[in-house]
Amino acid sequence: MTAKPVVPRELANRDVDDAIAYFLSEDAEQAALGFIDAVEQAYAHIARHPATGSPRYAHELNLPGLRFWPLARCPYLVFYIERPQHIDVWRVLHGQRDIPAWMQEPENI
Length: 109
Prior knowledge:
Strand content: 15-25%
Oligomer: single chain
Structural class: alpha+beta
Order of helices and strands: EHHHEEEH
Distance between the termini: 30 Å
């Protein structure tokens, strides 16, 4: 299977930037670097295998096609929808957040 381009939305990029900023504010540079690596690995995986993500929140949020893939060694989830030409990444959220509330932000609708 050919990999599709991964296109993060502005909120997804902001989620990643916020997580990195948090790690750096805690003097956890290695954690920040590990997080970046995990995001890159997750994006590469969903680019090649978009159907492997869990559809758990798709019904609850009434967002057909929504899936998530967990980051390796990090408690974060990448939320995305497979489009015909690309992977549309909506958010990168900590798994302990109120996922339905965070996914209902106006930009996502």
